[in-house]
Structures are given as C-alpha cells and as structure tokens.
Amino acid sequence: MDAYMNRVKETSPIHRERNSNQTWIDQGSFANAILKRLRKRVAKLTKLPDRIIRGSEPLQVVRYDKYGHYNVHHDAQPIASHSHLNCCHLNVTKVPSCRLCRFITLLYYLNDVEDGGETAFPVADNETFDQQLYVKTMENDQFNLMEFCYDGKLIVKPKRGKAIMWYNHFVDETTGWLGERDDYTLHGGCGVRKGIKWIANNWITAPDAALAHVKSSFEVADEKMLEEHRKLNEL
User: Fold this and answer.
1) 3-class secondary-structure state, position 136
2) Which of 79, 124, 143, 214 could form a disulfide with 153 if both were Cys (CB 3.0 to 4.6 A apart)?
C-alpha cells in the first residue's frame, strides 16, 4: 500500500507535495543590472549588510502550470532539532547533510494568475498554535493546498509586481545572530486552476553566531570570479 501511494504521489500532479519547475539565477558581482538593482533594494529593505545579501542563495525562479502547487512547508529548519548540522549556505557541498538557515524570505509575484496560485499561511497569528497538536487534531489534510487553500488564516493573491516578505527565524537576543525558527511561518503555494504562475524566491541566509565569521559558499565563489576577472584584465 505504501509503495502504491508513493507511485500515485509521484505520477499524479495533483497529489505531489510540490508540482513546479524552477531554476536559479546568480545575483553576484557578474549578475545583470536588473538583479544588481534588486540586491540593493533588498539591502535597503532589510537593513542588512551587503555581505549577508551577496552571500545568500541565488534567486530561485519558479513556474507553476495548471495544477501547480507547493503544499504547506517551512523555508528553514529548526536549530533545536538540527543543531548538529551547519548551515547549508556555508558549504553547499554538504547538501542535504546540512541545515537550511534562511533568515528571511522575499517572494516576488512575476505575473497575474487567471485563477488560483495564492500563497497561504495556515497558522498566521494563531496564538494557540502547537505544531504537533495541529497535525494530530486536523480533520482534513490542511497541508494539501490543492484542496484546502482557503482554510488558511492568511491568503495572499498573486499580482504582478507584488512582493511579500517574512522572517523565518527570530534573532538570538544574546548574540544578535540567527535564533530559533518561527513555526508560524508555515506556508505554501495554492493550486493553479487556470493559467500559469511565475514567482521568484529570494532567500536571505544568516549563520549561527559561532560561524558568523565564515564566508558563505556563494560569497567565496563570487570573490573567486572577481579575482579571475582581475587577472584576465591584467594580461
């Protein structure tokens, strides 16, 4: 039965946890002018230093066709249960044996969707939220956003040019660096019923205090490309 259900999940677009196509675009020193301007706007909005912005993950661009969706999930992982793992952005060769340390999510809507494709936050502002109890007591699979999109506490309709931002983690008051995950950030992409949905995810990563001095893999790669470019110009 388990094998059968897994086959259904993988072969049926409606039953997959995620049904989308995505690619990643570099935002480093050799990015095009539009992405460089975007990076500066993100720095201004978040008030974070350029090193944090530049050292974050590449921009993820996602296309959802009809029945495209992404069921409820978190963008980051809790420190408490993953403290033995270092942040993925500090060493991307360790993926998936690492911890997603996405401090901030910025989601950009790139087009108007004919029908569906909302972003749902099922437990936003739910003061009594307890994740284990929530899962145990739900009458329906509230994580399934093909069916239960509009049961969420907060529903955001996609509109070209709109962006939403949220913090996946608190700030550690002692160190000023990455704190524990905010479990209220459960979210997902509702099913597209008509048309196509385009979005982009900008994940701003931040390390734990103990490794705050370590450069991210993306920052190291960017500096290496700059150095190679400098040497070529000297030839």
Assistant:
1) helix
2) 124
Bridge partners, 207 (sequence order):
none
CB atoms within 10 A of CB 98: 18
Contact 74, 153 (CB under 8 A): no
Of the two residues 3 and 47, the one the predictor is more confident about is: 47
Burial class of residue 11, CB neighbours in 10 A (0-12, 13-18, 19+):
exposed
Residue located via tokens 């066709």: 65
Contact 101, 55 (CB under 8 A): no
60 is written with which tokens? Answer: 């993820």
The answer to whether 74 touches 178, Cβ cutoff 8 Å, is no
Single pTM value for the model: 0.90
* DSSP string covering 169-226: EEEPTTTSSEEEE-GGG-EEEPPEEES-EEEEEEEEE---GGGTTSPPHHHHHHHHHH
Torsion of CA 216, 218, 223, 229, to 10 degrees: 170
176 in Cβ contact with 166 (< 8 Å) = no
When pLDDT is averaged across residues 206-217 and rounded to a whole number, the result is: 94
Query: In the structure encoding, which two tokens stand for residue 21, read together?
Result: 């196509």
| 146 Cβ contact partners less than 8 Å away, ≥ 6 residues apart | 14, 67, 69, 71, 190, 191
